[in-house]
Amino acid sequence: MPNIAPIGFIDVSQMAGTLVMRHDVHFDDDTRLQDEPGSPYHDTKTILLRGPQGIHAAKGNDATKLWIADVTHENAPLLNDWPTARRCLNLIAEMLAKQFGKPPQFGKIMVECLKPGGWIDWHVGGGAYADAHDRFVCPLVTCPGAFVLSGGEAASPAHGVLCYFNHHVAHSAINAGPIVRSHLVLDIRREEKPN
């Protein structure tokens, strides 16, 4: 399978609109992922819609351990206040269920924005959590000159195109464009853990 592969199109226009008009203030709610020393995500901001149970109350090393551990995940309270996001997630779940023959079991779900001129350092998803999950991305706000890179492949997915994205190999992203680009990032439990 390619490292970056389109799965199908989802109409994310209403979610993108409410992100820009109402929910983008939440990018500053929690910056721990970006503030971690040596974090590859220094030029990003995220809105966590689903994460490890207890992550919002966890501090310091406890939060880091929860982030990479294969633990129970739960929806963030913000998801209850964002019906267009829930609608998109339901459409994605239906699409993935058709693709893989069973409903997906979601892990982390977040909206990630990458600033103009910014990048995500090359890294490989590690730890028990990464080993147990596959990653998918769906652009909400696209930008010319913004690319995702994985295992020697590069793509600039169009608005609403859900793509498999291999985070088990070296991967990165760059935004050489003039505006912020925002992706919905979803992790799905793998059927089998890799050898």
Structural commentary:
By secondary structure, the protein is α+β, with helices and mostly antiparallel strands. The chain has one domain (4-189): Jelly Rolls, CATH 2.60.120.10. It has helices spanning 13-23, 32-35, 60-68, 77-80, 83-100, 127-132; strands spanning 4-9, 44-52, 73-75, 106-114, 119-123, 133-141, 146-150, 153-155, 161-165, 171-175, 181-189. The strands form two sheets. Strands 1-9-6-11-4-2-3 form a seven-stranded antiparallel sheet. A four-stranded antiparallel sheet has the order 5-10-7-8, with no helix packed on it.
Topology:
Elements lengths: L3 E6 L3 H11 L8 H4 L8 E9 L7 H9 L4 E3 L1 H4 L2 H18 L5 E9 L4 E5 L3 H6 E9 L4 E5 L2 E3 L5 E5 L5 E5 L5 E9 L6
Antiparallel strand pairs: 1-9, 2-3, 2-4, 4-11, 5-10, 6-9, 6-11, 7-8, 7-10
CATH architecture: Sandwich
Radius of gyration (CA) equals 15 Å
Task: Return the domain count.
Answer: 1
The residue ranges in which pLDDT falls below 50 over 5 or more consecutive positions are none
Which percent range describes the beta-strand content? 25-35%
Structural class: alpha+beta
Helical content class: 25-40%
Largest sheet: 7 strands, antiparallel
What is the H-and-E element order? EHHEHEHHEEHEEEEEE
CATH-assigned fold name: Jelly Rolls
* Number of β-strand runs: 11
- List the strand order in the largest sheet: 1-9-6-11-4-2-3
Our count of helices gives: 6
CATH class: Mainly Beta
Shape: globular
Query: N-to-C terminal Cα separation, in Å?
Result: 17 Å
What is the H level of CATH, i.e. the homologous superfamily? Jelly Rolls
Mean pLDDT across all amino acids: 94
